[in-house]
Amino acid sequence: MQENFSLQPYNTFGVDAKARYFTEVNSIEALKEALTFSKNQHLPLLLLGGGSNILLTKDFDGLAIQLNLKGISEENISENEVLVTAKAGENWHEFVSYCLQKNYGGLENLSLIPGNVGTSPMQNIGAYGTEIKDIFVSCQVLDLETLEIKAFNLEECRFGYRDSIFKQEGKGRYVILNVTFKLTRKDHHIKTEYGAIKSELENLGIENPTIQDVSKAVINIRQSKLPDPKQIGNAGSFFKNPTIPLAQFEDLKQKFENIQGYPNGDMVKVPAGWLIEQCGWKGKQIGNVASHTLQSLVIINATGNATGKEIFDFSTEIISSVKEKFGIELEREVNII
User: Fold this and answer.
1) Is residue 241 within a helix (H) or strand (E), and if so which, with residue range?
2) Are 329 and 323 in contact (CB under 8 A)?
3) Alpha carbons 210 and 103: distance in angstroms, whole number
4) How confident is the model at residue 227 (pLDDT cuts 50, 70, 90)?
5) b/e per residue, 305-318, with b = 16+ CB within 10 A?
């Protein structure tokens, strides 16, 4: 247990906020011990994974726990299916790479997403036509109140777009210990129709892609437009893509002919990046904070010296300008602490 501890290395924005107490846990027993300490001392809790989906706007007057639970196990359930369970502290992309090396299919479109396995179900991470819910089987969690371990299946997690029970009524109540996925062993379902995957595969000269080829294409696309958090502080996509009623979208189309949208029944998902770019934010910098030059959906710690409050205020200005121009209120995808 350490006091007055800098969390700068533990958040991908690189914000230098301090925690009153900090500890790293490598086992469930150590986690329970830390939780008991926080309860006895009446301390607020901050559970840290890969630090890729948080913005620390001030010092944290409580106990920050870095979850470092590691391990991967497998169980073949049929000739074509395998259950793979990864503990919460496993790095997400390293886990995807592990599965690809074993030729297990289902995760390839989710390559190079920052963060750890334990946080993947919380916001039902997704990219290029795949979401966690598509391959999710179950997860084990620790109830922070009772310190009992329980399992959540697919239905109980109530996954939605960048949403789950862990962001709603279960928020702050559970810590995810491990996640189990059902992957394919040979008859893989290759998804290349979303985004720029097809054109990137063409650039690579690949006509009949393997799951490894799809992963390579996804990695190339992500690296071409998203900054590496190790090089420049960011948390990936800062905002959710808003979903609006079809009627509202049709009205906007009368005014903005080039507006992009992906219909789903009587609702339409509108790319937040497009809205932000139309408001002139792409590449714009205010003080230490900027919108990325290649992807306006990404807010960056441009100088490396930005405070969390500066980043938060910058995002508030983006939300205000999009609301004023399009009548759409953007929602932050990043957790604000």
Assistant:
1) none
2) yes
3) 9
4) confident
5) ebbbebbbebbeeb
The three-class DSSP label of residue 310 is helix
In 58-85, which positions are buried (b, 16+ CB within 10 angstroms) versus exposed (e)? ebbebbbbbbbbeebeeeeeeeebbebb
Which amino acid, one-letter code, is at 180? T
- Range with lowest mean pLDDT among 7-11, 195-199, 294-298: 195-199
Would you name the residues annotated as active-site residues? 162, 237, 333
- Condensed to tens digits (0 to 9), the pLDDT of residues 35-69 reads 999 999 999 999 998 888 899 999 999 999 999 99
Cα(277)–Cα(282) distance, integer angstroms = 5
φ, ψ at 278 (rounded to 5°): -65, -20
How far is it, in rounded angstroms, from Cα 53 to Cα 238? 8
The tokens describing 40, both together, are 């006895």
Encoding tokens for residue 45?
């809790």
- Distance of alpha carbon 325 from alpha carbon 133, whole angstroms: 34
Q: Beta strands of the chain (E only): which ranges?
A: 2-6, 18-25, 45-48, 54-55, 60-67, 72-76, 81-87, 126-127, 130-131, 136-143, 149-153, 174-184, 233-237, 243-245, 262-264, 267-269, 285-286, 289-291, 298-301, 335-336
Amino acid at position 39, single letter: K
Rounded (to 5) percent helix, strand, coil in the chain: 30, 30, 40
- pLDDT for 143-200, tens place per residue? 998 999 999 999 999 999 888 999 888 888 999 999 999 999 999 999 998 778 988 9
